[in-house]
Structures are given as C-alpha cells and as structure tokens.
Amino acid sequence: MTFFSAFKKTLHLMLASLVMAGAAQAADQGTAAEAEAMVKKAVAYIKTNGAEKAYEEFTNGKSFKDRDLYIIVYDLNGKNLAQGANPKLVGKDLIGLKDPDGKPLIQMFIDLAKTKGKGWVDGYKFLNPVSQKIEGKAMYLERVGDTLVGCGIYKN
C-alpha cells in the first residue's frame, strides 16, 4: 500500500468516525417534535391527575425527563411551579430571570402564553443540564389556565 492510499484510507476512517460521533451527539439531544409531544403529554397528565401530583412528577419523577428534555411550569406572574432540571427553582418568583445576553426569559414565555396560548419562544441561551454548558435554546409551551407548561430543546 502506498503512502497516499494509506493516508486516504486513514482520512476516510477519521471522517466516518466524526460523522458517527455527530450523529450520536444529535441522538443525545431532544428534537422539536419530541419537546412538543412531551408538553402535550404533560398537559394531559395535569388534566388527569391534578396540578399538585403533576408538578411533583415533573420536578422529582422520571416519566417527564428524557436526555436534555424536561418539563417546566410557571404561573402567569413568573412563579416557578415545576422544574424538571433544577428542583431548587420551584416556588421562586423568576419573572426577572434573564439569559446571558439580557433576554427576559420568563417574561417572554408569559407573553407568548398570554397572546398566542401556545407556540415556540426561540433565540435565547440557558444552561444545558446534560452538557453543563450555556447553549442556545428554544422552548415550546402551552397555556393551561393561569399557567404555562413548557419543554425546550438545546441548540449547540
């Protein structure tokens, strides 16, 4: 085997491993469709089991956590009612919470819930609980009475 053919083969192997690594990383992240499905499942769970039981499951259970996907619930004044990635936030008024670029996260969620009832809030940054890095994020949410239920996807 000549040097060039060995080099070419090595290069192909390296590229193939990079492609597979990228596919594996993508598989470790939730998709927009999965986030929407999780919110719809969470809304149905609230309606079937009541808010108290649902919020406990979202925060401390396992059935609403999948890789980097998890459920959040806020009232329309900015109080956190359930948080699948960080239970310490439950009960806190987070209306003033901003991302590293100064975007008012919770206010953006509330505004969408009040005006449209459901949809995506895109273009902000948040700590990914899996990678422990600040990453771009988009949140799908639906209004349920005087609350909003959301699930976000990370975009690294």
Model description:
- With 156 residues, the chain is of the alpha+beta class.
- The chain has helices at residues 3-27, 32-49, 51-60, 105-115, and strands spanning 65-66, 69-75, 80-83, 118-127, 134-144, 147-155.
- Strands 1, 2, 3, 4, 5 and 6 form a six-stranded antiparallel β-sheet that branches.
- A hairpin with a 2-residue loop joins strand 1 and strand 2 (69-75).
- Helix 2 crosses helix 3 (51-60).
- The longest helix has 25 residues, at 3-27.
- The termini are far apart.
- Mean pLDDT is 87; it is low at 3-8 and 10-25.
SSE blueprint and pairings:
Blueprint: H1 3-27, H2 32-49, H3 51-60, E1 65-66, E2 69-75, E3 80-83, H4 105-115, E4 118-127, E5 134-144, E6 147-155
Antiparallel strand pairs: 1-2, 2-3, 2-6, 4-5, 5-6
Helix pairs in contact: 2-3
Give a summary of the structure in a few sentences.
By secondary structure, this protein is α+β, with helices and mostly antiparallel strands. The chain has helices spanning 3-27, 32-49, 51-60, 105-115; strands at 65-66, 69-75, 80-83, 118-127, 134-144, 147-155. Strands 1, 2, 3, 4, 5 and 6 form a 6-stranded antiparallel β-sheet that branches.
What percentage of residues falls in helices of 4 or more residues?
Answer: 40-55%
Helix count?
4
Output the helix-strand order. HHHEEEHEEE
Number of strands: 6
Q: Radius of gyration over alpha carbons?
A: 19 Å
Structural class: alpha+beta
End-to-end CA span: 40 Å
**Rounded average pLDDT:** 87
What kind of sheet is the major sheet?
Answer: 6 strands, antiparallel
Shape: globular
Q: Please state roughly what percent of the residues sit in beta strands, choosing from under 5%, 5-15%, 15-25%, 25-35%, 35-45% or over 45%.
A: 25-35%
Low-confidence stretches: 3-8, 10-25
